[in-house]
Amino acid sequence: MRLRLVLPTLLAAAALAVPLGAAPASAAPPAAGAGAVTPVPALDLARYQGTWLQVAAIPSPFQAQCARDTRATYTVLPDGLVRVQNQCVRADGSVSAIEGRATVGGPAPSQLLVSFVQFGGTWQFQPPFGADYWVLGLSRSYDWAVVGDPARRSGFVLSRTPTLPARDIVAIVAVLLRNGYDPCSFVLTPTTGGLTTPVGCPGR
Question: Residues 143, 50: contact at Cβ < 8 Å?
């Protein structure tokens, strides 16, 4: 099921919470003439924390077990790290959950590194244990976010709620295109109360 993000008539896009940190085996190639992937210049982690629902994402093996209701909850800790709690519901109704940590990994506060690997009580953020988690787009009200990585191997569309108004969909698509992503490579994430009608991509 392809998520048709490009139409303003798409008033709702199902939920989102990102198991951060792993990259899918393949993703859409950069758009012709696409420039560098650029994170937003400012990110207030205090406002970014909380629960996000996964509206759509580039398919990845580590999420194959998830049937619906994928979400992530971020909490800023006293040591400056961010607790990452990911969960989703499997087809049999059971819940899959994992916990990790995120830290700022670049000159911009929106260039985060996420890891789910810990040795001797210390979180490992360097490759191959850490993965880029760059916030590429963010609404002023912190109601939605677009997350990716500099190689465009992963991509997530996140929302605080299961649905999004048409104007937000238009803004999200603009972020994806500006960063060289193909919006049609993002697949709808089934979420309770979210979009359920199959929507195709134009020309696909």
Answer: no
Q: Across the strands, what pairs with 102?
A: 82, 114
The CA distance from 158 to 150, in Å, is 18
- The DSSP symbol for 61 reads G
User: Looking at residue 127, what is its pLDDT?
Assistant: 86
Alpha-carbon gap, residue 133 to 17, rounded angstroms: 13
DSSP conformation letters of 160-192: SSS---HHHHHHHHHHHHHTT--GGGPEE---T
Of the pLDDT bands very low, low, confident and very high (cuts 50, 70, 90), residue 18 is very low
Looking up tokens 């990994």 gives: 105
Peptide bond into 128 cis (omega under 30): yes
State the Cα–Cα distance between residues 143 and 60, nearest whole angstrom.
24
pTM of the model: 0.82
Give residue for tokens 């199902």.
14
Q: Does 24 or 170 have the greater pLDDT score?
A: 170
If you ran DSSP here, which 8-state letter would residue 42 be given?
A: -
Per-residue pLDDT tens over the stretch 80-101: 999 999 999 999 999 999 999 9
C-alpha closest to that of 15 among 146, 176, 160, 136: 160
Alpha-carbon distances, residue 185 vs 38, 114, 155, 180, 201 (angstroms):
19, 23, 9, 12, 9
The dotted CATH code for 45-184 is: 2.40.128.20
